[in-house]
Specification:
InterPro entries: GlcG_carb_metab_protein (IPR052517), PduO/GlcC-like (IPR005624), PduO/GlcC-like_sf (IPR038084)
CATH topology: Beta-Lactamase
Number of domains: 1
Order of helices and strands: HHEEHHEEH
Strand content: 15-25%
CATH superfamily: Haem-degrading domain
Number of helices: 5
Helix content: 40-55%
Largest sheet: 4 strands, antiparallel
Protein name: Heme-binding protein
Strand order of the largest sheet: 2-1-4-3
Pfam family, one: HbpS-like
Keywords: Signal
Shape: globular
Structural class: alpha+beta
Number of strands: 4
Radius of gyration: 22 Å
Distance between the termini: 52 Å
CATH class: Alpha Beta
Length: 165
């Protein structure tokens, strides 16, 4: 009887060990540099079509910059702002417009506006694929966050067929 118990414990331990090793590692997906660049170029093209000179930044899922494009007459502040919007969208996994709406002065989430590096102005969107966030895009320089966001959305739509896996 004791042999069976020991054998059962050894078998259980042997089967459980690979499960623990697998749990120690996490697999993630992120945009390739080529797809990130396609996204940024499409957003820039959409803003140009609308007559706006902007900067566009695409970050990976951790908020690290992959691509930054600045149109020739976009303001000097736009690259930093676009990157900040993309970082904020990636960090919070939502649009910067939604964050702006829930963090107005006097609201419970108003403190979000004071977080270092957070740019809570419309124009930043998370990029989702296969049920996971794979990056984010930020646009700055159009007259208003809604116009920035429309260009960002056009960038995402331009790569949508590459993201559906």
């Amino acid at each position: 009887m004791m042999k069976r118990i020991v054998l059962a414990l050894v078998a259980t331990a042997a089967l459980a060990s690979p499960l623990r090793a697998q749990d120690a590692l996490v697999t993630t997906k992120t945009l390739s540099p080529e797809v990130a660049q396609d996204c940024a170029r499409a957003a820039l093209a959409e803003c140009r079509k609308r007559g706006f000179q902007v900067a566009v930044a695409v970050v990976d899922r951790a908020g690290i910059a992959q691509v930054m494009l600045r149109d020739r007459f976009a303001g000097a502040h736009t690259p930093t702002t676009a990157t900040g919007k993309a970082w904020t969208a990636a960090s919070f996994r939502t649009s910067t417009t939604d964050l702006s709406n829930i963090s107005q002065p006097g609201m419970m989430q108003a403190g979000l506006r004071n977080l270092p590096g957070a740019v809570i102005i419309g124009g930043g969107l998370a990029i989702d694929a296969g049920g996971a966030m794979v990056g984010a895009i930020g646009v700055s320089g159009a007259p208003g966050g809604d116009a920035d966001e429309a260009c960002a959305r056009a960038g995402i739509e331009a790569i949508r067929d590459k993201l559906d896996f």
